[in-house]
Design brief:
This protein is mostly helical. It contains five helices and no strands. Helix 2 packs across helix 5, helix 3 packs antiparallel against helix 4 and helix 4 runs antiparallel to helix 5. About 75% of the residues lie in helices and about 0% in strands.
Length: about 170
């Protein structure tokens, strides 16, 4: 049971979304600045900038913003997809209840408790591996157990399965 009121939670979410939006805008400004410098270096007629080193630097400066935009977009899409699944699981009452599990001083769940939780969720997953809900719960259990790589893989699979269920492409 949470001690926060629904209004408090909404304010926290609004602040977080605002913070992410500001960071995204700062990154876009940074990417545009880098890109404009790259274009300047590539197109300038100044004899001091016609050396191959400056042209290579310009290409690098052009690649960095493109990579940055790609990383920003994919991260925001993944966050949106994960949030959609979390909201659905919460509405359906399927979110893992970790409120009674013992925790370290840092707030993380103790390893033995996380491993026990994972074993329970693993059995659910093995019984129905094509269900996005069991994949989602397995991803969360992996995360609680500290295995971030597998957690990301399972969450990606859960997103794909849920998308297929929503669009009827199963």
């Amino acid at each position: 049971m949470s001690t926060t009121e629904p209004g408090d939670n909404r304010r926290q979410i609004t602040k977080l979304v605002g913070f992410i939006a500001v960071l995204a805008l700062v990154l876009v400004f940074y990417f545009l600045s880098l890109g404009s410098r790259a274009i300047f270096l590539l197109t300038t007629d100044d004899p001091g900038y016609d050396k191959p080193l400056f042209k290579a630097l310009a290409v690098g400066l052009l690649i960095l913003p493109l990579l940055g935009v790609w990383m920003l977009v994919t991260s925001l899409r993944a966050a949106r997809d994960h949030q959609r699944l979390a909201r659905r699981m919460h509405e359906e009452g399927g979110e893992l209840d970790v409120s009674r599990l013992p925790r370290r001083a840092s707030g993380r769940i103790e390893k033995d408790a996380a491993d026990t939780l994972f074993e329970q969720v693993k059995q659910e997953f093995e019984a129905d591996p094509e269900n996005w809900r069991t994949n989602y719960r397995a991803a969360r259990a992996y995360d609680y157990a500290g295995d971030r790589t597998r957690a990301r893989e399972m969450m990606k699979r859960a997103v794909e399965l849920e998308r297929g269920e929503r669009t009827g492409k199963r």
